[in-house]
Amino acid sequence: MMLVEVTAPAVEALPVAGLRDHLRLASGFAPAGDAAEEAALAGFLRAAIAAIEARTGKVLLSRRFRLRLEDWRDPAGQPLPLAPVGAVERVEIADAAGAALPVDPARYRLVPDLQRPVLAPVGAELPAVPAGGFVAVTFCAGFGPGWAQVPADLAQAVLMLAARYHEDRSFEGSAGALPFGVGALVERWRAVRVLGGRGQPRRRG
Fold first, then answer.
1. Tell me, what's the pLDDT at 110?
2. How many CB atoms lie within 10 A of CB 28?
3. How far apart are the first and last CA of the chain?
């Protein structure tokens, strides 16, 4: 399994002004200083968002991802590793030589879920993956394109963690060691990531 982030959140979607207010930063910097400060705050926010997304499995700002699998974990329904998923944009199946063809969207559907969205078949099973081939699923995940769509507790957790990064540049934050207050805010969003289905991968010719 390989998951790739295809697009990144736009700088305009990051709550730079909110972080500035949270830090009680003074206004009236010189233009060059403003630009440098804006870039630094955006960097802290991106790092905080990444840490919280890794901890919860929830995508805060909408963007596109590509999931590659050697085969379906369960042809009756493939769980997706992130939530919430707004749309499955494309499914491609490649043969052993790497030649990929799109799957007709009429053959699959998205089952939305805040914890465990699923790519489900229209019919009994998802299309078979050839031996030595792979399947690639391109999907859009996130609460929304703007910061206003992010749940309040997750948004606050991001600001708190980004402020921690700003105030203590030596702080070695990670998805596994969040400050207590941040961890408490995101706890209810945590979910066991179920990347597999009900059985083992089935290789079909």
1. 98
2. 6
3. 20
Q: What's this model's pTM, rounded to 2 decimal places?
A: 0.84
Integer Cα distance of 179 and 13 in angstroms: 24
Sign of CA dihedral 101, 106, 108, 111: positive
CA dist., res. 120 & res. 110, Å (int)? 6
Average pLDDT, the chain: 87
d(CA 173, CA 175): 7
Segment 39-67, tens digit of pLDDT: 999 999 999 999 999 999 999 999 999 99
pLDDT digits (tens, 9 = 90+) for 160-175: 999 999 887 655 554 4
Cβ of 126: how many Cβ atoms within 10 Å? Answer: 23
Q: Which residues contact 52 (CB under 8 A, 6 or more apart)?
A: 58, 60, 154, 157, 158, 161, 175, 178, 182, 186
Cα atoms in the Cβ-side hemisphere of radius 13 Å centred on 150? 23
